[in-house]
Amino acid sequence: MQVEGKVALVTGGAEGLGRAFTEALLEAGAKVCFCDVNTEQGESTYTVLKSKYGSDRVIFQKCDVSNQTEMEGKSLNYLFRCTKETFGNIDIVCNNAGIGGEKPPLWGKVVDVNVKGCICGTLLALDYLSTEKGGSGGVIVNISSAGALNINPYGPVYLATKSAILSLSRSFAQNPLACSGGVRVNVLCPSFAETSLVRNISEQNTYDVNVARKFVEHTPSMSPKDVAEAFMELVVDESKNGAVLKCSKEKGKQYCTINVTYS
Ligand SMILES: NC(=O)C1=CN([C@@H]2O[C@H](COP(=O)(O)OP(=O)(O)OC[C@H]3O[C@@H](n4cnc5c(N)ncnc54)[C@H](O)[C@@H]3O)[C@@H](O)[C@H]2O)C=CC1
Ligand SMILES: CCCCCC(=O)/C=C/C=C\C/C=C\C/C=C\CCCC(=O)O
């Protein structure tokens, strides 16, 4: 896909990986709407990006991806509508917003943000991108985790949500809604990257926090820019649909094949 002139929507773009994805898309010539629940950080990032890329190429919207109804404030429905109204089309969607939290009552919010937010964002993306519904096709990249391909005793709820994103994306890639509408659906599975999510590992979002921190310390971490490079490959390479791309500091990019049969 030629990214120049295309329109992208990124959730959770105020900082971390979402900000790096937003910048990579802007750098490649796209117009980007990024959203975040954190207005202060979002506005601050917007100020930087606007001065670098121009106010006609980037917009920031406050949005909580776990908000399923218009009544409660800025929902994903609103975000998609606003992006289309501002830029005229949507070609690229990245469902990135995600949080960690293992213990009650936090784990319910983790499911709402990571799973429901990604499902809602994927369904809306199919609606807006599909050629059968007036769109011009395009690509959805959902953000899972390298942990979703394995087990991890310290973050079972977080990793369950990331496994859900993996299955959701691989399944939608073969679904008629996507296939007949010219929409590719790919999933990125990063290992550790230097962001607030990892810096803020605590008793609330991991079991055995000291062991978890040691595990993180001993696993080489990527910069958000490294992860954005892998993300852009899934956007640009039109041969990739249903692709599962793992990336890590030690091994770089690796496409994963998952073979499961029903019998
Ligand atoms: N940092 C890492 O090592 C890895 C991160 N990931 C995934 O990458 C994604 C981004 O994570 P990071 O950048 O590391 O985290 P981060 O905490 O640095 O950034 C996440 C952003 O999402 C926003 N956000 C949180 N809840 C939201 C909501 N309900 N609605 C809208 N925005 C919301 C936050 O305010 C923040 O700006 C997440 O889905 C995470 O699970 C996956 C693998 C590794
Ligand atoms: C090789 C595992 C890569 C996991 C990368 C990832 O998604 C990082 C998430 C970091 C924090 C999320 C917060 C809580 C979830 C808890 C654990 C995740 C794994 C932590 C660990 O010690 O392995």
Automatic annotation (TrEMBL):
<dbReference type="InterPro" id="IPR002347">
    <property type="entry name" value="SDR_fam"/>
</dbReference>
<protein>
    <recommendedName>
        <fullName>15-hydroxyprostaglandin dehydrogenase [NAD(+)]</fullName>
        <ecNumber>1.1.1.141</ecNumber>
        <ecNumber>1.1.1.232</ecNumber>
    </recommendedName>
</protein>
<dbReference type="InterPro" id="IPR036291">
    <property type="entry name" value="NAD(P)-bd_dom_sf"/>
</dbReference>
<dbReference type="Pfam" id="PF00106">
    <property type="entry name" value="adh_short"/>
</dbReference>
<comment type="function">
    <text>Catalyzes the NAD-dependent dehydrogenation (oxidation) of a broad array of hydroxylated polyunsaturated fatty acids (mainly eicosanoids and docosanoids, including prostaglandins, lipoxins and resolvins), yielding their corresponding keto (oxo) metabolites. Decreases the levels of the pro-proliferative prostaglandins such as prostaglandin E2 (whose activity is increased in cancer because of an increase in the expression of cyclooxygenase 2) and generates oxo-fatty acid products that can profoundly influence cell function by abrogating pro-inflammatory cytokine expression.</text>
</comment>
<comment type="similarity">
    <text>Belongs to the short-chain dehydrogenases/reductases (SDR) family.</text>
</comment>
<dbReference type="GO" id="GO:0005737">
    <property type="term" value="C:cytoplasm"/>
</dbReference>
<keyword id="KW-0560">Oxidoreductase</keyword>
<dbReference type="GO" id="GO:0047034">
    <property type="term" value="F:15-hydroxyicosatetraenoate dehydrogenase activity"/>
</dbReference>
<dbReference type="GO" id="GO:0016404">
    <property type="term" value="F:15-hydroxyprostaglandin dehydrogenase (NAD+) activity"/>
</dbReference>
